[in-house]
Amino acid sequence: MFVVCFVIFRYKPDIHFVDKHREALIQRVSNIDSILDGLLDKKVIKREAYTKIRLIATPQEKIRALYEGPLQAAEICKEIFYQILQKHEEFLIKDLNGKK
């Protein structure tokens, strides 16, 4: 008698860069106003959200507000955020890309 065992793996897509490095981005992004401008231009955030986030005191809280709102909307929002980060936080992104 033969016993056949099957191991079932659930497909799990790769975790997006901005999710993988959430904590580091919250702590280390400093050029937040330029990033907000880019998100507004690309229509990831609306003027009302832009204004509210700009009024938040610290860069860390501003990034958290993005994670709690617009970055949850769709994967494309995360991708646009990542592209804007590459432009305005080039050295931070290179540093994080070098870490596993």
UniProtKB/TrEMBL annotation:
Coiled coil: none annotated. Gene3D superfamilies: Death Domain, Fas (1.10.533.10). InterPro entries: CARD, CARD8/ASC/NALP1_CARD, DEATH-like_dom_sf, NLRP_Inflammasome. Keywords: Cytoplasm, Immunity, Inflammatory response, Innate immunity. Residues 16-100 form the CARD domain. PROSITE patterns: CARD (PS50209). Pfam families: CARD. GO terms for biological process: inflammatory response; innate immune response; regulation of apoptotic process. GO terms for cellular component: cytosol. It is found in: Cytoplasm, Cytosol. This is CARD domain-containing protein. It comes from Acanthochromis polyacanthus.
